[in-house]
Automatic annotation (TrEMBL):
It comes from Streptomyces antimycoticus. InterPro entries: AAA_16, P-loop_NTPase, Sig_transdc_resp-reg_C-effctor, TPR-like_helical_dom_sf, Tscrpt_reg_LuxR_C, WH-like_DNA-bd_sf. This is LuxR family transcriptional regulator. PANTHER family: DNA-BINDING TRANSCRIPTIONAL ACTIVATOR DEVR_DOSR. Residues 867-932 form the HTH luxR-type domain. GO terms for biological process: regulation of DNA-templated transcription. The lineage of its organism: Bacteria, Bacillati, Actinomycetota, Actinomycetes, Kitasatosporales. SUPFAM superfamilies: C-terminal effector domain of the bipartite response regulators, TPR-like.
Amino acid sequence: MLVERDQEIARLNRLLFEDAREGSRLAVISGAVTSGKTALLHTVADTAGGRGVRVLPAVASASEQKFPYAVLEQLYQGMPAHLQHSRPRPGLEALRNPHGPIEAELPLLQDFHRTLDELTGDAPLLIAIDDVQFADLPSLRCLAYGIRRCRSEALSVVVSRGALTGPAATALDELLHEPKVCHVRLAPLTVTGVSTLLTQELGTEEAGGHAAAYHEMTGGNLLLLRGLLDDRFSRLTRGPLDPGPGTDAPVAGELFRQAALSCVYRGGPAHRRVAHGVALLGDATSVPLLSRLIEVEERLVRQSVGLLTEVGILHGGRFRSDAVRTVLQDDLELHELGPLHLRAARLLYEEGADPIDVARHLLSHEAPGPVEEWISQALCDAAVHAIAADRRELAMNCLQMADRYSTDEREALQLQATMVQAMWPFNPLSQMRRLQALAGPAGSGLLPAPQTIPVVIGLLGLGRMGEAAAALEQVSRAADEHPGTDLDTALRAIRLVLSSTYPDHPELRPFLDQEECDGPWDIGPLSPDQSPESPQLTAFRALRTVLSRGVDECAVRAVERVLETVRLSDRTMLTVHAALQTLVYADRHATATSWCDRLIEETSERGAKALLAYFCVLRAQIALRVGRLRDTVRYAERALEELPARGWGVTVGMPLGMLINAHTAMGNHDAAAELLARPVPEEMYRNRFGLHYLYARARHQLATGRQHAALTDFRACGEKMAAWGLDSPATLTWRLGAAETWLTLGGQERAARLAEEQLELAGESSSRTRGAALRVLAATRPLNERIALLQQAVGVLQASGGWYEMARALADLAEAHKQLGDLDTSRLMTRRALRLADSCGAEELSRSLQRTPARSALSEATRTGEDTAAFSELSDAESRVAALAASGYTNREIAAKLYITISTVEQHLTRVYRKINISQRRELPASLDFDVAYTA
């Protein structure tokens, strides 16, 4: 027994059996349900029996409270036989006349008093009554009469009691509040008490370390603690011989749940109903709401909540353990559960509670009944909150249930549109049929304009341009009626989307907005009367600007602000995507990569497969533009894994275009041909994403010797881009592709003219496009002019990060030096080109460079591992300098790259030459580590 209980037993024993006293003594053991009152009562009774004291036990029961003298009958049954037979049975006598006057029971009272005197005359007597609050009224009167009149010191009475309720409360209160009554109040165990119990029960000091966790789950309630311990022993009995660490930690099992139910049921029906109500609502902080839900008086609800808290079931209005709440919910009958959930939902809705809490009850309400108008609205509100909280499954459940309850056609259509918008980022394929079903209502005006906008975007992606135009006409009319609203802003954004992405459809042309992007960019502080432009318009206008006019620094800064301030969500995903596309087309590769990687991680964690696929394609586009071909394939293939081609609709040209382009550059022509053999929507060729596919097809045809087909596709790209107002260097370099094609056909002049046009469009900035144009232009010039242009191209490409194009320029430069007879420089350029080609994944280019025979004997020996010992003597600093020198960098350039002096570079090189036994830098082998030189 615990220390606290031992102290109480000793106190009761002194009071009842040892202290000097006059007359009978009465002790009352009280406490919450299952606090150990009965156990303490039995211990006192057993102690009395061990001392030779006669014990008359009785147990009062709520089910027998209406039977007169039920408790007194039990006491008589414990008396000697001669007293049982010599006295009348009061219960039977009273039952013959249960409504007789109180005076009629006077003989019974006197008889009981004489019996007590006779019993205490022979030996000490202890009357022990458990749960005396359930005793019947006549028995209580007899007890009170006998105890007051019995002056014998040999009589002791000990009772356990709970809350006083019912008709016997007054009589019991009168009996238990005598001046000499000793009251023992049992409180739940403290953490220290729990620790002592665990140590005793589990037999290890370590077990006490879990006391706080056990106390947290039980509040120190002995019955609940016993349940947890019994569950533990049950697990160990069923489990392995060595259960391993952590087996002393509390885990709620079936025995714990049954103990919790016992705690609740012992409190009576009203107590049980309150517990069920708290389990349904989730907390008991609002007593009026709980009272209305279970239809119990607030006074009784407060009383029961207090008892549930005292007994360790509740803490701060909530269940200490979710297992208790679950078992109480399961304890409700099915025919009770549905109506209670519906009533809870209605009460919460009327009080303006969290819509998701309201929906939780509605979704649990399965009982049939009349449709109530508020239910559909409540579910819609909950769906909106669930979508904002990224609880996609809950949102869909709410919307589907609202759809079943909806009786209005327009409301049902809105629900369908909301479902499409909620689920599209996660699984567009599952929503295509629903989207197509909404096309007609959207075009006829049955669907409200705000819900029509996502339908328009979806129809555009499916290539259903006529239906999208009809729906867009409805949005346009609504926006005209409400100028300056969010709807008007959304319409302007859609027009920008059309002009930058879907510009080639007769029915959509009336909605194109070529003027939105033509205004000057204001990046300075706003005047007091000037409102900031919405992030949505900013992003789409910036994208249109870069696609139509090339890189614009103000547009770039604007979308960087958008990305910093706008959080990715269903409503902002197009805005964020447009801002990121702007950075990609503007060749802001480092910034775009950082944002892409962050968004890929975020959407992957959320399970938003469609969004993840869109950002993977952008990541592939970045990799292609910087010449990282393996990364291009990896990200583009992942995009098509997350979202199959059918889910891309007419935008499938983007992932396919990236893959085809990369495989062609790598020399994987069979893989590119297989991708081109896949069927694609015809409408794909009428949007910007189709341009990327067309351009990639042209590159494949050029690489596989179909020059005229390639030239046709390159020209088609150029014509579309010019007609759509997207003919800028940022979009696609179709002129360079056509120029390379003319070079293979012997059309030097046409190739030169196209390259010069591209160079003029690229401007003077150090861009990837400018570097590529210089490389192509060099191929049209005489050999003596070619080297200067190629050197310029290499410098521009190195500064802009176009690694694949730089590898091609270096290869051309190596060939030019070879033709001029400068074999040493040719070998040096070949080494640099080879290392870059290997780094980029340009396998075909790498193979062509490896066929070049110009290698020094020392270089070849080093490559085959015949002279590795000399290189192991190089320090890290010497290796870095040697690598850059072998790549063709001057001493000044090496010093700038490594942040050292030119003199230090010269000293490092001198030591390198000596260690590897060479005399000049052109003899440096190609096997040196060039990664330090080319880090994109």
